[in-house]
Structures are given as C-alpha cells and as structure tokens.
AP2/ERF domain-containing protein (Anaeromicropila herbilytica), 266 residues
Amino acid sequence: MNLLPGVFVAKKKDGSTYYRSSITFRNKHISIGSYSTNEQAHQAYIEANTILTDSSIYIEDYDTSTPLLTLSKWIVLVNFRDNNIYFKNPIYIKEKYFLYYLDGKTILKFDVDDLFYYSNHKIQKRGGHLFVSDYGMQVSILSRYGIKNYAVLERDYQFANGDPTDFRYGNVQIINRYHGVNRIQHKGTFIYVAKIHLNGDYIIGKYKKEEEAAVAYNKAVHILQSKGFDKNFPTNYITEIDEIEYAKIYNMVKISKKIREYLPIF
C-alpha cells in the first residue's frame, strides 16, 4: 500500500489496521490523530499543515461539521503557530493571561502563573464541577485558591467581575474561608456567623471578625467532644493569628448556651 504524505500505518490489538497522521513543524513532531482510512489521515495532515502555515486561520474558524481534527488539536496547532509554544492541552496564550478551551462554548481564563500547571493537567467537568486528576485523585481547581470542596458560589466565594469562567487570581474572591463560618450583612456592615450541624444547624454565635468566628467554631467542637459527641467535625487552621492571639480569642470568645448545654443522644 502506498501511504499518502503524513500517514503511518498501525495495528490494533485485534490485528486490524488503522492510520495515524502526524506532522513536523519548527522541528516539533506533532501527532494529529488516528483514522480509519489512508485518505482521511492524509486530509487531516493537509488541514494541520494549512493551520500551521496560514496565520489568517483562527480558533473561531473551527468547523464542527467536518471534524478530521478535534477542537483541542485545532487550538493546540493555532497556539503553537502564533506563540511558538507547544502544549498537549487546548491552551491559547494571550498577552497577560491564557485561555483554556474546555469545549467550544466554555473558555476559561487563567493567570500566566498557572500556565505550567494546566499545560500538564487536563481540566474536566462533571456535575458542574471543574477538576483535574492529580496523583490519581480528582482535585477541584478551586483548591488552588484555598476554596473548600463544599464551598458554594456567592456564599463562600465569588467572581469580582461576575464572570464564572474568569479564574484569574484577582477575580476570585473568597467570602467564607473557614468551616462553619458565614459572612452576612447586618445593619450596613458585615458580621460573621458561626454555625455547627448536629441534628440541625445550631448557631454558635455572631462575631465582628472572621477569625473570632473560626475560633468560636473550634471551641464549640471541643465543647461537644468533651460531652462525648463523637462526630468527626473538621476544625479550622487559622494562619492569620499566632498561638498567643489564638489562645486569647479562644478564652474570651462567647459560645451559645444551646451549645454549652447540648447533650448528645447515645
């Protein structure tokens, strides 16, 4: 069989034949994809070569009706042509940030500080959550901002410009950083409410400072545990204050009478 330019023959485990397409550009060998026919693989090679050599072709020109190239591969090729940096993931570098194309409609923005990480970690979406696979575990991309897995948008964190696809650090604002602590508006200012879940939500107290509410939550956990309550509550690690300040707040912070007098049911 005469293989067309850019095409290589390969075998599946069952012995059947398929065709791989690849191209070399700026001394970089790039795999384009696998195809069922020699002609399809060659046509994909032609399309890839056209993208790499014609700067008038943009990401927006991708045609879903004849997808010999995946959208991801199209983006990879356009970025390599324009920025001379090859990534396996669908990234396009802008002047001060980069775009990550989750799909044709969802385009995420990140600071260049995250470029190395996301060039090596593929972003996936499941159940509305964005995550990467890291050491065999699914890790939420929000964890890079110190946002907990159970965090709720607009309650625990928000996007400053209202764009939930803009993950640049200056745009992601944490509202509630600690377990059991919620920020609420009260009489024109913000206060912090500490709650703990027993057989329902119990208010521990209301506090002027976030750190006070976080310490109050920890203290409530210790009170309940001293009463024999064996639920495995998470506790807060508070980096903004030292051990002396923590002990001072812990001793002075007031805890709801309902918590202090709560008796677990065994």
